[in-house]
């Protein structure tokens, strides 16, 4: 067992599960080492959840966990490669051993930072498969690994991180992988609903993060900003309210849905 896995044993157990919020819940956030995932970890811990920061970037995960702990929350950093079944199962086993359960899973990990922007007509098939292995298969494997604990507890919240690229078209491999995630969300919602588990998604628009700055050309960002009705320079904070809603009992009669949070860039009927 790694030192990071052992660090789970040093954490206090959340005392109870009270009210309609996330206090006392055990939450796993993949891709929690930076960007939106880090903010999700901070928000969940700030509301009283014990957070497992799961990331392939161990240093980033440790940094997030340290930030959460410094602010009075409970967090542990664990390495995971969401595209590898054995890795996701190892993570789930470590969470079960320490906490005995997992209540919330946020499938946030994705290939986005500095990704290639190849058009579909010429994209290399190996790169296409790499993107899908993380963005789509990763959500499948993590849900398969963690859902059994939720089924045992008769309660769970799973949140899939999609993107408005799923609706806009022209997003190449990234957009198609996020579009496929909508179908995965709906399928799991039907399978897990009878067990008291909801499965919903968040589709952010252009969010001001290091990953966006490194990936999306400035001219494209300006074009998207001009198309957005709400002239807000959105950051990860603008997604937190939706996340906490989907992770709480306030959304108990809602599943299979993906909430678009994008300032009105995508309007669906």
Compile the SSE list and pairings.
Blueprint: H1 3-6, E1 26-30, H2 35-46, E2 50-55, H3 58-70, E3 74-79, H4 85-99, E4 104-107, H5 125-135, H6 137-153, E5 156-161, H7 165-168, H8 172-192, E6 197-204, H9 210-215, H10 218-227, H11 237-246, E7 258-261
Parallel strand pairs: 1-2, 1-4, 2-3, 4-5, 5-6, 6-7
What is the molecular shape?
globular
CATH topology, which one?
Rossmann fold
Biggest sheet features? 7 strands, parallel
Rg from Cα: 18 Å
Could you give the count of β-strands?
Answer: 7
Number of domains: 1
What CATH architecture label applies? Answer: 3-Layer(aba) Sandwich
How many helices does DSSP assign? 11
Task: Please report the distance between the alpha carbons of the first and last residues.
Answer: 50 Å
What is the CATH superfamily classification? NAD(P)-binding Rossmann-like Domain
Structural class: alpha/beta
Tell me the β content: 5-15%
How are strands sequenced across the largest beta sheet? 3-2-1-4-5-6-7
Residue-averaged pLDDT: 90
Q: Tell me the helix content.
A: 40-55%
Q: SSE order in H/E notation?
A: HEHEHEHEHHEHHEHHHE
